[in-house]
Design goal:
The structure holds two protein chains of two kinds.
Chain A (H helix, E strand, L loop, with lengths): L4 E7 L5 E5 H9 L11 H22 L1 H10 L14 E2 L16 E6 L9 E5 H14 L11 E5 L11 H12 L1 E4 L5 H17 L2 E6 L1 H13 L10 E6 L12 H11 L8 E5 L8 E3 L5 E3 L3 E6 L13 E7 L8 E14 L5 E10 L3 H4 L6 H9 L1
Parallel strand pairs in A: 3-15, 6-7, 6-8, 8-9, 9-10
Antiparallel strand pairs in A: 1-2, 4-5, 10-11, 11-12, 12-16, 13-14, 14-15, 15-16
Chain B lengths: L5 E2 L2 E3 L2 E3 L6 E5 L5 E5 L3 H9 L10 H16 L4 H12 L5 H16 L1 H12 L9 E3 L2 E7 L2 E5 L5 H13 L3 E5 L6 H13 L4 H4 L1 E4 L7 H10 L2 E5 L2 H10 L5 E5 L3 E6 L5 H16 L9 E6 L3 H18 L7 H17 L3 E3 L6 E4 L13 E6 L14 E7 L4 H10 L4 E4 L17 H5 E7 L15 H6 L9
Parallel strand pairs in B: 1-5, 8-9, 8-11, 9-10, 11-12, 13-14, 13-18, 14-17, 16-17, 18-19
Antiparallel strand pairs in B: 2-3, 4-5, 6-7, 7-20, 15-16
The chains are: A alpha/beta, B alpha/beta.
Chain lengths: ~400, ~475
């Protein structure tokens, strides 16, 4: 990888500037013990974001021929003014194109999305990108709380680490297993529900804290079961429920998040709804966005997030709904400058939790009239061909 | 435009229910209008189920056709208040352009008023124009078509024409109608049913029609009762709607599913400028009509003619349609879907042509361009090379293949239909369903009726046995084998 001059990260006693390369600068942030940067001013955070993303842009321009050609067609190779000028890659491009910035020999795995719409994205990850993901989860998870590695256990409502295969969502959820003792159970039968309830009770007896992680619809199913059994799990202040994944039930209805939190708090006998947190990630994004205690998703400084106007692709004002875009500097495997299939908002400044920075609210997926009408868009036809 | 939420009524057995009798749900339309939709209540469901499901069974077909014709004549008049209100609702609430809304009203008038076509469709699909009214000789039997009873229609929000078609098919086959409207378009079924009451609120047809709503993700107790009570269900729309219907269905419930489908165009090699212009105008029509929300709308076109010659003409034609049939309002989601597609095409380096303010888009790309289609007058244009296998570009989800010029029909028809296409039309005619044609591979009227037969008695000889049929005697004499032809 090309080492690239970036910014003065540290100075020595004599005030001499040490010029560090981009890799060191971003890794200093990612592999820190805690998300200390939320104590920095918004301006400082945004300055770091700006520099890290610019460095990543230069890297992918050099190493990803598809991206370079795209940039040359869109804005030329004159360089960018603001970050918003970086040409965005539609996440749909990952469904059919192999977009990579590293040689095939460096790709650890091609991961795919869960594919609820029938089409799956295929996105490469090299070792550095994966290590940064793991590192960022470890440090940013500080937003959730501080647990000793040996003091907390996990009940993961999903396949165990050994069954993860190449589904990105499952891989990300399984990362927690690397840190804490974990029971992985998919709640697909009454017997599974019994096992989950038993695991919760057993781990609460053995450990100080318990993290229950899974997609919202699995968590909701477990809550229904616990209610039927008279709420046998006494979570009080020792359980944290971590949700990730689509906010749709099997039937397709949107889950009301406030009602969901009230349901979870009651079913697990939790002290506070602050113990119920959501995280956001997608296969085309290399960072995980964690919710704080007041349910705001904080953006780490190596990621630039902006909802955009769909016609102009210019960022919309804070608080206004737009199509989400992410510029993630932590990814070396592919140009993670994406236009996502979600609508959301951004706010910045001081959060009620006390942290400074940028927060996002992913409101919902883009939903077209095509999805509701009798005109079949071409997805299924192409999905069939993709499988061939 | 009013910013107050608007309460949408329901119709129960022909009676307008202005104030919801149960729960409601709120939706926001493409123009930002908030609608309060009544969820079908226990009382509504009980009233509907209590009506005679065979109330139209003894009504002569000619009376039904005449009634529909009367309603159609009202719709034809630009002074008809119901029509004016309907056009206003489509424009203000759903974001249709004035011209497009007027065209929808005209199509309702056309379908209802085309009495000769209704008879033709009955003849073509059921075999005889009188089969719904009397016994018709047919080989060694007489047959008669009876209504199945209560028809439930899960209506789409994207194509008003489908609503009218679905309800009319049920009525001309003498079924009573429960129409479940989409939150995307409550107006078409309500206006249609009210236009029947405008003719005569006590007429059996007016009273045989109910228009209700439920949340498709949670049909509730009342919706469940109506689904269980139905004898036949016509489901229009998305994969979700079709799968939902399959999950709810009783084992003996007849489900007639329409959609989802996609359609495409084939433009052969043309040299004369006027021919190229005609082809471009025809294709522009099939792209712009209903902004590609219909299953028959062309989403892709394979073109043998030089694209350097064809694209300028197509650009001109699409601009003409931007004027003669302005695009409907597009919400944030539609614009976002378009942005994603355009970014994908740009990333892949495909040439893109866009109308002013993105009102239409042409993307020149290989046939396997992988994006989901954003609709919104977006055409994927592919070179039709000698190597192209027509069989590879269609499948069983292909509905309409439109062809230009028509003289190329014989070269393509069997190849695309064998591979799965349901329908071939001339380019520019995709929205006109001719009497006699199949719809998505079936003849829907046949599924809306139950055929009964009266078969000839023993005294009547069969064609192959020239004696009276005396089965006991034949068995006693062990002569059965003599009568095997």
């Amino acid at each position: 990888m090309t080492a690239r001059c970036l910014e003065p990260e540290r100075t020595d006693a004599a005030g001499q500037v040490w010029v560090l390369d981009a890799t060191t600068a971003i890794d200093t942030l990612i592999f820190s013990d805690s998300p200390y940067w939320y104590g920095l001013s918004l301006e400082v955070q945004q300055e770091r974001t700006d520099r890290l993303v610019r460095a990543a842009f230069e890297f992918h321009l050099e190493n990803c021929p598809l991206f370079r050609a795209y940039v040359e067609r869109e804005i030329g190779l004159r360089g960018i003014g603001s970050l918003e000028e970086i040409p965005l890659v539609s996440t749909r491009a990952f469904k059919f194109s192999e977009i990579s910035s590293v040689p095939a020999s460096m790709i650890e795995q091609w991961y795919r999305s869960s594919g609820t719409s029938g089409l799956t994205s295929r996105v490469p990850r090299d070792r550095r990108s994966l290590e940064r993901l793991v590192g960022s989860v470890h440090s940013v998870a500080g937003l959730l709380g501080r647990w000793d590695d040996d003091g907390a256990a996990v009940v993961n409502l999903g396949p165990g680490r050994e069954h993860v295969d190449d589904v990105w969502f499952q891989y990300v959820m399984s990362l927690i297993e690397a840190i804490h003792e974990t029971d992985s159970i998919i709640p697909s039968s009454l017997n599974d529900m019994e096992r989950i309830a038993a695991a919760c009770k057993r781990r609460l007896a053995e450990y100080d804290d318990l993290i229950i992680a899974g997609p919202p619809f699995y968590i909701a199913s477990v809550c229904d079961f616990l209610e039927e059994r008279g709420r046998p799990v006494q979570g009080e202040s020792r359980i944290t429920v971590l949700t990730a994944g689509g906010w749709k039930r099997v039937a397709g209805a949107d889950v009301d998040r406030k009602a969901f939190r009230a349901q979870v708090r009651q079913a697990f006998n939790l002290t506070s709804e602050a113990q119920i947190r959501d995280v956001f990630n997608q296969v085309e994004l290399n960072s995980v966005l964690f919710e704080c205690s007041v349910h705001e998703k904080h953006v780490p400084p190596w990621v630039h997030v902006a909802p955009r106007d769909p016609d102009t692709l210019l960022p919309v004002p804070d608080g206004q709904l737009g199509i989400m875009s992410y510029l993630d500097a932590s990814c070396t495997a592919f140009p993670c400058f994406i236009l996502a299939e979600d609508l959301g908002t951004v706010v910045r400044g001081k959060c009620a939790c006390g942290r400074e920075g940028v927060r996002v609210d992913i409101v919902r997926r883009v939903e077209t009239r095509a999805a509701k009408g009798c005109a079949l868009t071409m997805g299924r036809l192409h999905a069939a061909r993709q499988r061939q | 435009m009013s910013t107050q939420p608007r309460t949408i009524p329901a119709i129960v057995a022909g009676r307008l229910i202005r104030s919801p009798r149960g729960e409601t749900r709120r939706v926001v339309t493409a123009t930002g209008m908030e609608l309060i939709l009544p969820l079908v209540s226990e009382a509504d469901a009980t009233s509907i189920i209590a009506t005679d499901r065979l109330a139209l069974a003894d009504l002569p077909t000619q009376e039904i056709v005449a009634f529909l014709y009367g309603a159609g004549q009202n719709w034809k008049s630009s002074e008809y208040v119901r029509r004016k209100l309907y056009i206003r609702d489509l424009v203000q609430c759903l974001g249709y352009s004035e011209k497009m809304a007027k065209l929808e009203a005209n199509w309702i008038a056309m379908l209802l008023s085309s009495y000769a076509s209704i008879y033709d469709v009955i003849e073509a699909e059921l075999g005889n124009r009188y089969v719904l009214d009397e016994w018709i000789p047919r080989e060694e039997a007489q047959i008669r078509a009876y209504p199945r009873g209560r028809s439930l229609h899960i209506l789409p929000g994207n194509v008003p024409l489908s609503t009218t078609t679905s309800v009319m098919r049920a009525l001309i086959t003498k079924n009573s109608v429960v129409a479940k409207f989409s939150s995307e378009d409550p107006f078409t079924p309500l206006a249609l049913a009210q236009s029947f009451s405008d003719i005569d609120p006590n007429h059996p047809i007016a009273r045989a029609v109910s228009v209700v709503h439920w949340n498709s993700a949670d049909l509730g107790v009342s919706g469940k009762r109506l689904v269980e009570d139905a004898d036949v269900m016509c489901v229009w729309g998305s994969i979700g709607a079709i799968e939902w219907a399959a999950r709810q269905a009783r084992p003996d419930l007849e489900i007639i599913a329409f959609g989802p489908k996609h359609s495409l165009a084939l433009i052969a090699e043309l040299h004369e400028k006027h021919e190229i212009r005609e082809a471009a105008r025809a294709l522009a029509h099939d792209v712009c009509f209903r902004d590609q929300r219909a299953c028959f709308s062309s989403q892709q076109a394979w073109v043998q003619t030089s694209l350097d010659l064809f694209i300028p003409e197509l650009v001109t034609a699409l601009d003409v349609y931007a004027d003669v049939l302005p695009r409907s309002a597009h919400g944030l989601d539609d614009r976002a879907a378009r942005a994603l597609t355009i970014r994908e095409a740009r990333f892949l380096g495909y040439p893109i042509f866009e109308g002013k303010d993105g009102i239409w888009t042409i993307i020149v790309c290989p046939a396997d361009f992988a994006s989901q289609h954003p609709l919104s007058r977006t055409l994927y244009l592919h070179p039709w090379t000698h190597e192209l296998s027509l069989e590879s570009i269609v499948d069983k989800q292909t509905q309409t293949v439109s062809v230009y010029p028509w003289s190329r029909l014989k070269h393509v028809r069997d190849r695309v239909c064998r591979a799965g296409a349901a329908r071939i039309v001339e380019c520019g005619m995709s929205n006109i369903f001719r009497p006699g044609g199949a719809h998505d591979g079936i003849f829907p009227l046949q599924r809306l009726v139950r055929f009964a037969s009266t078969e000839l008695p023993s005294s009547a000889f069969t064609k192959s046995v020239t004696v009276k049929i005396e089965q006991t005697k034949f068995l006693e004499q062990d002569r059965f084998v003599e009568f095997i032809p």
